[in-house]
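step: validate -> pass
step: tokenize input -> pass
step: predict -> running
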Amino acid sequence: QPFVTLVVAYVDVARHMFEYAVAGHPRPVVLAGLTEFPLPGDGHLPVGIMRGNVYQTNRAVLPDDSVVVLYTDGMTDARAGGAVFGETRLRETIAAHVRLPAQELADHLLGVVSEYAGGVLPDDCAIVVVKLP
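step: predict -> pass
step: emit ->
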């Protein structure tokens, strides 16, 4: 049965409003300064797994200087000697480099994951970083 995983997100930079829905993807990571900002809601099944599934839109007003990071599971599933890069390591890497400009942070994260996996990434790795003023 065909299915697709995705995140749909909308960021209103002027109002700091962040709306998103998750279907089989990791939930976004948001940092406010150096502290992780808790987002409401949960993820849901990928689209196509269950007919008629309704996907909840989650909404949060983000603090000033927030950083939103959306990524595919290829980032956390990258392996080195059987051990995955993982959510914890990704979150720690984001926090340690959150002061970088958005594109540099995205490039750095992809580079760290690629290096961890010895340059071999068997799954797609995509990352989007949005920085709010």
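step: describe -> The mean pLDDT is 94.
step: cleanup -> pass
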